[in-house]
């Protein structure tokens, strides 16, 4: 698949099954992530792979974090949270380890670089024939989740990238955006 086709056909696919990418494909996906724009060559990216039995252990982390974050959460909701990592055979956690005091590169640009790396993960997975679903939600901002993943409290999780083989087509979300909806000439006429 060429780059333009990958860019214009990528979609979030929430139903993903086995097989997931093999070790060689994961390396290709992560090498693609390393090509993200990076002002100042700070390389703020951090990637963690979660697969196999580690997904269930990560589910336990998510369930404990939800129960601690929202006391009294119904047991069914906690169990639903526990099962989320089982939605795909591979999760790549994309994070930014930033330097908020950097004299030249604002922290937001460092986080943006990690988000661009996450987008490259999504595109590379698609180009290799896999589906990818980018999730964040409260777990991405939860200090206990970061700690369990070995990340610092100041690190920013920009995405939980669920990757696997699509089990169905992308849902129809109605009219796709068109360029004219977002384009303005400057200065205004």
Sequence of secondary-structure elements: HEHEHHEHEHE
CATH topology, which one? NADH Oxidase
Identify low-pLDDT runs: none
What's the multimeric state? single chain
Residues in helix, %: 25-40%
The DSSP helix count reads 6
Q: Report the sheet-strand fraction.
A: 15-25%
Total beta strands: 5
Q: Nutshell version of this structure?
A:
This protein is an alpha+beta fold and about 190 residues long.
Task: Tell me about this structure.
The chain is 37% helix and 17% strand. With 189 residues, the protein is an alpha+beta fold. It has one domain (3-181): NADH Oxidase (3-Layer(aba) Sandwich). Strands 1, 2, 3, 4 and 5 form a five-stranded antiparallel beta sheet that branches.
Distinctive features:
NADH Oxidase, 5-stranded antiparallel beta sheet
What secondary-structure arrangement, pairings included, does this model have?
Layout: H1 3-9, E1 16-17, H2 23-33, E2 45-51, H3 54-69, H4 75-83, E3 90-96, H5 107-127, E4 131-135, H6 143-148, E5 156-166
Antiparallel strand pairs: 1-5, 2-3, 3-5, 4-5
Helix pairs in contact: 2-5, 3-4
